[in-house]
Amino acid sequence: MKTKREYMNLYLFEIKTLSKHFEEMAKQGWMLSSIGMLNITYQECEPQDVHFFIDIYHKGGYLNPRIIPSDEESYGDFISEYGYELVTRTANFQVFMTHQEDMIPIHDDQEEMKKAQCKTILKYEIFNHLYILIFIPLFSMNFMNLSLYTYTSDLIILFHILLPFALLLVLYRVHPTIKWLILKDKYNISVTKMMKRNTFLNRLNILILICFISSFIIASETSMIPPFLTLVISALVFLLLDPFLARFIKKYHSVFALIICLYVGMLINVNFFIFSIPMEPSNQAEGELTYHDLRKDLPDVVERDFTNKDSFLLKQERYSEYYQDNQNQTRDFEDDISFHYELYTIKVSFMQDYLQDIALDDRYTLSTTGNTMNEKTSWKLYNGSYDQCLMWDNYILYLSIYDTGHDNFTSVSNEQITTIIEQF
Amino acid sequence: MPKLKLDRLTEPMYYTLLALLKPRCGIEITEFVLAITKNRVRLGPGTLYAILSKFQEESLIDEIAIEGRKRTYQINKKGIEMLKTEYRQLQTMVEEGKPFMEELYEDKT
Predict the structure, then answer these.
(1) Which chain B residue shows the shortest CA-CA distance from A83?
(2) Do residue B30 and residue A77 have CB atoms under 8 angstroms apart?
(3) By CA distance, what is A63's nearest residue in B?
(4) pTM to 2 decimals?
(5) Do A81 and B47 touch (CB under 8 A)?
(6) Chain A residues whose beta carbon lies within 8 Å of the beta carbon of residue B63
């Protein structure tokens, strides 16, 4: 049996328009078979006159939203008893058809029906855009934390470029619903328009999703590929994979998007957001040294020729030994250091100078872990404390103050550091 | 949030309880209501299903038989009490309004 598919963005407020469209299709010999998130499937049939009724399945029906039917199957059966035939159902609505004229409408209370329709539509739209609703606040928080002194990775910048597009896409998708919620019956959208919107939205959806995914892969920690190239590669991937992905995403659109976005969001926020806790002013107690106090001399320091390489290497070695002994982890410090020595030293020298300035260097020393990949390194204090600083790049460089006078070469606690610094 | 207890009956609810004084299934309830209201109240299956679910939740009716897709319901003691209360309230409302309403009708004539 031949099947036909129509791709459209279903707007649940247009149940009458959709019912009429299904009736027209049946007249042309295409009987409604199933409704997916973005597509409608028909099967070839004899041209016939049928009446369709879309019953938006709000929990508890339209009379009273508090009423919860115990069983969806029994609800369908109950309606069928009246001569309606269940054609298909989704999570939000069921489609019934009948060949009879002058049937008792499924819902006789139009006002209650409209109320229930509004509730269902709101729930439907919120669920469909849950991923972006989760995304926006998380990204906004990251965005708010960005400052002159915060390292911004290529990836974060890229995501911030993509985010407004994703936001516009959602607005484009939901604005007819918002219009309907305000204007009610004065606003209509035709089936043709729904189809056109779907084609456009689908393409954009796919593009943005691919950009998100590929940018994450390409602009990963070890990559030197700049954002614009990432976008170009993403676009190429999109063009190459479109025919397959379009079909796949149309089928599992929401779940797919939700999983991908939550996954990416989680990765980003584990890697970046958690460490981007704002320094000032919330974490700064009155009278404490501020981040700017630490930062203000940096422009002079970075220009300085750094000479105490031996001292730096020695400290690294001590820390490396300590780390291996205590954490049972091996890191390739020597390679890192010889490779990125100059870059480290500029930053570390500043910290060392600073420690010397505040007379901490006699007993406390500075350690680093990790590596950096390019010269965009900047740094910020971690979590408002002075014992651990992060150097940000495609890779994180930890700077820690350690108590070298202590037998176990322990990290100095926030409280201790605050107390020590306050003494000066 | 706790669900609100049903304390008054709407018009479709009242007629549904009235229909269930005898065992009836969904379509029979609709037909009964159509007959006694002379086609004025057309209880759609969606509306009726919600009403019956609510009544079951409030233990005002019992499901007494299931034959295939067909489910038969009947009012129980609690339901009868609810119906009686509603009937008395409707009667009281009519009686209390009667002198004033009759005046209105007299004025018109």
Answers:
(1) B27
(2) no
(3) B47
(4) 0.56
(5) no
(6) none
Mutation for A interface: B48, B63, B71, most A CBs within 10 A: B48
Quote the pLDDT of residue A140.
Answer: 55
Chain A, window 96-135: residues with a beta carbon less than 8 angstroms from a chain B beta carbon: 104-109, 112
Those residues with Cβ within 8 angstroms of residue A67's Cβ, 6 or more apart along the chain or in another chain: A60, A61, B50, B51, B53, B54, B57
The low-confidence residues of chain A, meaning pLDDT below 70, are: 37-38, 57-73, 91-92, 127-163, 165-166, 198-199, 201-424
For the record, the structure tokens of B6 come out as 């049903």
DSSP β-ladder status, A397-403 and A364-369 = antiparallel
Tens of pLDDT, residue by residue over A356-383, are 554 444 445 444 433 333 222 323 322 2
Helix (H/G/I), strand (E/B), else coil: A53? strand
**Do B69 and A68 count as a contact with CB atoms less than 8 A apart?**
no
Task: Please indicate if any CB of chain A lies within 8 Å of the CB of B44.
Answer: yes
pLDDT score for A214: 59
Closest Cα in chain B, distance from residue A81 (Å):
7
Our CA-based measurement puts residue A23 at a distance from the nearest CA of chain B, in whole angstroms, of: 21
The per-residue pLDDT for A3 is 87
Helix (H) / strand (E) element for A93: namely: strand A93-98
| Per-residue buried b or exposed e for A298-311, using 16+ beta carbons within 10 Å of the residue's own CB | beebeeeebeeeee
Strand, coil or helix: A71: coil
Q: Based on the number of CB atoms within 10 Å of its own CB, is A41 exposed (0-12), middle (13-18) or buried (19 or more)? A: middle
Shortest distance between the Cα of A55 and any Cα of chain B, in A, equals 8
User: Which one, of A130, A115, A362, A79, lies nearest residue A257 by Cα?
Assistant: A130
Task: State the distance between the two ends of chain B, measured CA to CA, in whole angstroms.
Answer: 52
β partners of residue B18: none
ipTM exceeds 0.85, yes or no? no
3-class DSSP state of A62: coil
